[in-house]
């Protein structure tokens, strides 16, 4: 039973992390500022590495890792495309959207790290992947606040 819980939790985080990687890739495509495109591409690479850590942990536990994001994220991205098209978007809108996604993924990881039913092996993999998540979250938060500060 604990191994099944570990695998399900790791796969759930893998799906969320793939969604995040896809979101960064999309943000890189939409950003008008070159510095943001590069930052988003780098962040997508960080998330691919975090995904690999989680997937390897699932394999080590004898499970089959997921390798694609969620349908909900796909629908959410399409809604954001429409919202951005209607609002004119721009880099600030992209940063706001990415930062919101970072809040979501960070909370998912923190919830998993508090799960007392996970094995030390699963928690170690989650903790390793969480380093990327936390760094990405903090980076986007800081950029968002800097943009808000310069707009006033």
Question: What do these coordinates show?
Answer:
Helix 1 packs antiparallel against helix 2 (34-60) and helix 4 packs antiparallel against helix 5. It is built from five helices and no strands. It is elongated and about 50 Å long. The chain is mainly alpha-helical. It has a single domain (2-151), classed as Ferritin (Up-down Bundle), CATH 1.20.1260.
Beta-strand segment tally: 0
Following the backbone from N to C, one meets helices and strands in this order, namely HHHHH
Strand residues, percent: under 5%
Specify the biggest β-sheet: none
Number of domains: 1
Structural class: mainly alpha
Number of helices: 5
Radius of gyration: 16 Å
Stretches where pLDDT is under 50 for at least 5 consecutive residues are none
CATH superfamily name? Ferritin, core subunit, four-helix bundle
Q: Averaging pLDDT over every residue, what do you get?
A: 85
User: What name does CATH use for the topology?
Assistant: Ferritin
Give the distance, in angstroms, between the N- and C-terminal Cα atoms.
54 Å
Features:
mainly alpha, Ferritin, 5 helices, 152 residues, single chain
What is the element layout, followed by pairings?
Layout: H1 2-30, H2 34-60, H3 71-87, H4 91-113, H5 120-151
Helix pairs in contact: 1-2, 1-4, 2-5, 4-5
